[in-house]
Design a protein that fits this description.
The complex is a heterodimer of chains A (543) and B (184). Chain A is α+β, with helices and mostly antiparallel strands and 543 residues long. Chain A folds into four domains: 6-109, Sulfite Reductase Hemoprotein, domain 2 (Alpha-Beta Complex), CATH 3.90.480.20; 127-289, Sulfite Reductase Hemoprotein, domain 1 (2-Layer Sandwich); 312-393, Alpha-Beta Plaits (2-Layer Sandwich); 409-542, Sulfite Reductase Hemoprotein, domain 1 (2-Layer Sandwich), CATH 3.30.413. Chain A has helices at 6-28, 33-41, 65-78, 101-109, 143-153, 226-240, 251-258, 260-274, 283-291, 312-321, 349-362, 385-393, 425-435, 439-442, 501-518, 525-532, 535-542, and strands at 45-47, 52-56, 62-64, 82-85, 91-96, 127-128, 168-171, 185-191, 197-203, 216-222, 322-324, 330-335, 346-348, 366-369, 375-381, 409-410, 447-450, 464-471, 474-481, 493-494. Chain A is globular, with a radius of gyration of 23 Å. The relative contact order of chain A is 0.09. Chain B is 33% helix and 12% strand. The chains are: A alpha+beta (543), B alpha/beta (184).
Chain lengths: 543, 184
């Protein structure tokens, strides 16, 4: 993992001191709310329905045990004993007092964490493949590049008052586990024809009220020109992105209005200039950062087989939660934060500490957070899987549902969020409860629930998406089918008129029945939908 | 590593070194002059600040590159009708990148909490709607010992400090010995 040096530390400490001063000026009245708001947002602090919400950055979803224990401490000391992992690999606390926020940030700084730029119209926390450094299919590790981006984007002098928020995701594999094409910039590490490392650059993806799958604007960006090219994209956006309408201010609208080719031309022209200005990190800096992500001391010659000992629950967990690792004898373990009866993505302080302990003992001290609101222990010896399973089961985290119907993504919705029009959590839980008995039979089925058009629950990218809206003062839920946030990215289509909360659960059950009836061998729900189209599903739901 | 990437890296390295050398002199000059008030409530951020009204004020939506012959002007204003509209930061940097050495002034809704970004984007003075206390400005501008990016105020990026090509600004000192080398 990356460790702070004196510069990183001094910067975060100075930021805490600066925010302490800003909060004091706000509390004394010297700073008005209009001018304070962007400052607190850029420190992760939202004013929500019941209290302040603090969003803490988990850079590219990586945590050490020590950091996860601090997140547990924050949950106990400043919140009500739990935290909520988000669809951008961050964690949110919903019950924060403004006066205590500077102390909280100082606690985070003590373990090399911060909440900088987790909100506001700036470059947000960088997200990445949760299997980075462990995936069997990885071309190159995205984490050093993500860290380079974290540093480059932090307190950027030119890009701290952008037209709108800006999100960047990276992956080092062809399989996309980071939903890169739904980001403002999506980056895929690839090898060029001569073996050199570079990026495929996608720009202008997004969800919200106008969803787009990001077009490719550069097929191969040499790694040495990485930061200057990012700078060029951001400059074109900062100068020409719309600022007259908040709903048209994301870069996806600029890219769409100009067309991907014209946008790419503008970026290339700006890049020709910027790359001469010393913006790109020298190779020594890339190597310095990469050294932090060197392999942990993996053992060699380990047995690769895993015995389930005839225990069906353990066998089901192995089959569902455990993925291949690039080093023989090791596995990637997915920890479900979607237990029956639980709120998607929530974890108690005790659960966080239990996972931190398991990571320390069995995963070289590393934990990852996924955009699907689960956790990952990236480097577990095959021989330790049983112990990890039992440790997780002891705190209620041994559900075997990765990618299944009950592994629902949901935003906080109207239970917490001021933007929401409808509740998401109860609907997500009801859908999960309804489908759980048949979820093994249903196979991979990604259900995503948002409580408003802003789409934090990624409903556009769900095989089944649910969008809560406000219809004449009552909660109404639209059903969408056929989306994907993976390498086969697509935008889900609205099936028809909306439903009540109970009605949408029934409708979801009906579309899964159509799938079971129509599917061919080996087809996932998404494959069947793509083959037969919306009509049979419409007939089942509205007929 | 392929040929293209090697060439790319060599360019980046040479360019980084040149930029660091060039900006070091400016940084030294800037460091000795704190923010001070000029006539008319104008707050000077660095020695390039000049008294007097701007000869040209660039609006947020205006393309700064469309103007020719700016090099003869003493003061160029960049308008901030609303502090949240950040287009002026790009305008200022583009002016500095084009070699403009006069005063670049932020005019309008700019407050204490934007000063550091403004200064690093290349602004040498501000004409704020509401007065800014120079003493508070001095504290705000001195708060951060280093930054990750190079600035148009002559500050060098953290990577230059780390790898010994820096000007000595920041906690890492001249030879960039700032990092602990802690692996993991």
């Amino acid at each position: 993992m990356y460790r702070y040096d004196a510069i990183d530390r001094a910067l975060v400490d100075a930021r805490v001191a600066e925010f302490r001063d800003q909060v004091a000026r706000r509390l004394s009245g010297a700073l008005d709310e209009d001018h304070f708001k962007p400052l607190r947002l850029k420190n992760g602090l939202y004013l929500q329905l019941h209290a302040y919400m603090l969003r803490v950055a988990i850079p590219y979803g990586t945590l050490s045990s020590r950091q996860l224990r601090m997140l547990a401490h924050v949950a106990r000391r400043y919140d009500r004993g739990y935290g909520h992992f988000t669809t951008r690999q961050n964690i949110q606390y919903n019950w924060i007092r403004l006066e205590e926020a500077p102390d909280l940030l100082a606690d985070l700084a003590s373990v090399e964490m911060h909440a900088m730029q987790t909100s506001g119209n700036c470059i947000r926390n960088i997200s990445a493949d949760q299997y980075a450094g462990a995936a069997a299919d990885e071309v190159a590790d995205p984490r050093p590049w993500a860290e380079l981006l974290r540093q480059w984007s932090t307190l950027h002098p030119e890009f701290s008052y952008l037209p709108r928020k800006f999100k960047i995701a990276l992956t080092g594999s062809a399989a996309d586990r980071a939903a890169i094409r739904f980001h403002d910039i999506g980056l895929q590490l690839v090898r060029g024809p001569d073996g050199a490392l570079g990026f495929r650059v996608f720009v202008g993806g997004g969800m919200g009220r106008t969803p787009f799958v990001a077009p490719l604007i550069r097929d191969f960006l040499p790694a040495g020109a990485f930061l200057s090219y990012m700078e060029a994209i951001l400059r074109v956006y900062n100068r020409f992105g719309r600022r007259d309408n908040i709903y048209k201010a994301r870069i996806k609208i600029l890219v769409h209005d100009l067309g991907a080719e014209e946008f790419a031309r503008a970026v290339e022209a700006e890049h020709a200039h910027l790359r001469t200005l010393g913006i790109d990190a020298p190779e020594a800096e890339v190597e310095r950062i990469a050294a932090f992500f060197a392999d942990p001391p993996f053992e060699t010659g380990l047995a690769d087989a895993v015995e389930d000992g005839g225990d069906p629950a353990f066998a089901a967990w192995l089959a569902r939660q455990v993925e291949p690792h690039r080093v023989p004898g090791y596995r990637i373990v997915n920890v479900s934060l979607k237990p029956a009866g639980g709120i998607p993505g929530d974890a108690s302080a005790e659960q966080m500490e239990a996972v931190a302990d398991l990571a320390e003992r069995f995963s070289f001290d590393e934990v990852r957070v996924t955009h699907a609101q689960n956790l990952v222990l990236p480097h577990v010896r095959a021989a330790d899987l049983r112990a990890v399973y039992e440790g997780l089961a002891a705190v209620g985290l041994a559900a075997a549902n990765l990618g299944l119907a009950s592994d629902v993504i949901a935003c906080p919705g109207l239970d917490y969020c001021t933007l929401a029009n409808a509740r998401s959590i109860p609907v997500a839980m009801a859908v999960a409860d309804r489908l759980r008995p048949r979820e093994a039979e249903l196979g991979e089925l990604k259900i995503k629930v948002s409580g408003c058009i802003n789409a934090c629950g990624h409903h556009h990218a769900g095989h089944i998406g649910i969008l809560g809206v406000d219809r004449k003062g009552t909660e109404n839920y639209q059903l969408l089918l056929g989306g994907s946030g993976a390498e086969d990215a697509s935008i889900a289509q609205i099936l028809g008129p909306g439903f009540t909360a109970d009605g949408v659960v029934d409708a979801v059950a009906k579309v899964t029945e159509v799938y079971l009836r129509e599917r061919r061998s080996g087809e996932r729900f998404l494959d069947t939908f793509r083959r037969i189209g919306a009509q049979p599903f419409k007939e089942a739901v509205y007929g | 590593m392929g040929e293209a990437a090697v060439a790319e890296a060599a360019v980046a390295k040479a360019v980084a070194e040149a930029a660091v050398a060039e900006t070091a002199a400016v940084a030294a000059a800037v460091a000795e002059a704190g923010p001070r008030l000029l006539d008319g409530g104008i707050l000077a951020l660095d020695p390039r600040a000049r008294a007097g009204a701007p000869e040209l004020v660039i609006a947020p939506g205006e393309d700064v590159r469309a103007h020719g012959g700016l090099g003869n002007l003493a003061v160029i204003g960049v308008a901030f009708p609303r502090f949240r509209d950040g287009r002026g930061y790009s305008s200022a940097r583009i002016l500095r990148e084009s070699g403009f050495a006069g005063d670049v002034r932020a005019v309008g809704d700019v407050t204490l909490d934007q000063l550091l970004f403004l200064k690093r984007a290349g602004f040498s003075s501000v004409a704020p709607e509401r007065p800014i206390d120079p003493a508070a400005a001095a504290v705000a501008l001195a708060r951060f010992p280093a930054f990750y990016q190079g600035g148009a105020d002559g500050s060098v990026p953290a990577f230059a400090l780390r790898h010994g090509t820096g000007s000595g600004r920041g906690p890492a000192g001249r030879n960039g010995t700032g990092h602990d080398g802690a692996a993991g």
